[in-house]
Design goal:
- 35% of the residues lie in helices and 30% in strands.
- It is an alpha/beta fold and 143 residues long.
- The chain has one domain: 2-Layer Sandwich (Transcription Regulator spoIIAA), CATH 3.30.750.24.
- The chain is globular, with a radius of gyration of 14 Å.
- The relative contact order is 0.14.
């Protein structure tokens, strides 16, 4: 995969991703997420995060309406090696529940680092404020 240029927006179907220095991988998911688009987006994310000590994944989930069965399989099969904190905003209740279930399943199956976190905020400003001043994980509040 080609080198990442900070700020350059890459499209994966209806999904969009970009990077921000020093360690933010941002994405905006829209509509019903399908397998091929999320697979390509995640491949880009894994390639970008390779070798980093930690990455924040800033996720705009405000326009997500669902995910296909194929997309769910892709998410279940991903193997992350870089510690990541997913900082999401705009998610509807059902989207939050789905994301929390995916993370819990990945932890249980051992396909993600045990310290991977998913945090939810109402707005992008709140999510970015957290990234600027992250706090230690709160036991019992992780997905």
């Amino acid at each position: 995969m080609a080198e990442s240029t900070p700020g350059e927006r890459r499209h994966f179907g209806a999904q969009v991703a970009w990077t921000e220095e020093p360690n933010i991988f941002a994405m905006r998911l829209e509509g019903e997420v399908d397998g091929p688009s999320i697979d390509a987006l995640i491949a880009y994310q894994v390639s970008w995060a390779s070798g980093k000590d930690h990455a924040f994944v800033l996720c705009d989930l405000s326009a997500v309406t669902g995910a296909t069965v194929e997309a769910r399989r892709v998410l279940q099969d991903i193997r992350h090696t870089t510690p990541m904190t997913h900082v999401c905003f705009g998610a509807k209740f059902a989207t939050r529940i789905f994301a929390e279930m995916v993370v819990r399943a990945a932890r249980f199956l051992g396909t993600s680092p045990p310290d991977m976190e998913v945090l939810f905020f109402a707005t992008e400003a709140e999510a970015r404020a957290y990234i600027a001043h992250p706090r230690p994980p709160r036991r019992g509040k992780r997905a």
